[in-house]
Amino acid sequence: MQLKPLKGIHHVSAITANAKENYKFYTQVLGLRLVKKTVNQDDTSVYHLFYADERGNPGTDLTFFEIPHAGQTYQGTNSISATSLRVANDEALRYWKKRFEELDVDHDDISNETGRATLSFRDFEGQRLVLVSDETNSGVAGGKPWDKSPVPTEHGVVGLGPVKLTVAQPDITATILTQVMGFTEVGSYASPVEGQKDIRVFETGEGGTGAEIHLEENSDLERERPGRGSVHHVAFRVENEEELKKWVTHLQELRLPNSGFVERYYFRSLYFREPNGILFELATDGPGFEGDEDFDHLGERLSLPPYFEDQRESIEAKLVPLNTK
């Protein structure tokens, strides 16, 4: 059975305790478009918000589950410790640094430690984020910023960049990435933490900023205790449903515990945990977000997959109204 290479990062899903403030930050500060306001399909009592480029192209989605009583995140190992967002060039980073200063967003200085210009920052709940410049990028293409964003399109976020994993035992994660998922180890860069080993870089598909995992070893930390501002999982791009079913068979043949095929309506999925406990998802590029809302009105209403539509009244009754028009 021949598997096509994974195409890159599909989406990253994180946790917020406050959907209203989350919506304000990611649309008004970061200028992303809310392309879908729906519910967590495993717990329909909470929102699932999808922020992305103009239409939610695969590889551009940063999503949030709202868990209103989520506690503080105690950062640690065996976690997704940073999520990158791509911008067009180094000039865009200078725009963002000034914007963060004006809007009082917690941020660092522009850095080149990864070999690309980057700007690390945190949202209002401490979510660990990094803007990365695509100035020298030659891999997976980015998306297209929404032209109604408060951020000028030339400086807007064009998609997800490298995702950093911090683990206690990197070799077993590296084995899953290379031997199971088809990634290639392509380099490394010095850790910003004194005394720690270099951070290893793995890529898939066409490579570049939209198709990298950065693997950091840190055995000094305790295991992360997730809460608001932590990341739940990272998803990787699969061409279509036929290809996803091949991945289901592949993991079953390797006897790796997994969810099997999961219908998510906006895409189809497969979930499994790598040996350090981080949740991975494989997700299809389609069908996308315009099956139940047209392009001009994405994210304005509560969207429910057809198999939840008969529960709309009871689902809406459990949610705090969130005005996204």
UniProtKB/TrEMBL annotation:
Residue intervals of the VOC domain: 8-134, 159-285
Classification via InterPro entries: Extradiol_RC_dioxygenase, Glyas_Bleomycin-R_OHBP_Dase, Glyas_Fos-R_dOase_dom, VOC_core
PROSITE patterns given in the database record: VOC
Gene3D superfamilies in the cross-refs: 2,3-Dihydroxybiphenyl 1,2-Dioxygenase, domain 1
PANTHER family assigned to the protein according to its UniProt record, in alphabetical order: RING-CLEAVING DIOXYGENASE MHQA-RELATED, RING-CLEAVING DIOXYGENASE MHQE-RELATED
The name this protein goes by in its record: Glyoxalase family protein
Organism: Halalkalibacter nanhaiisediminis
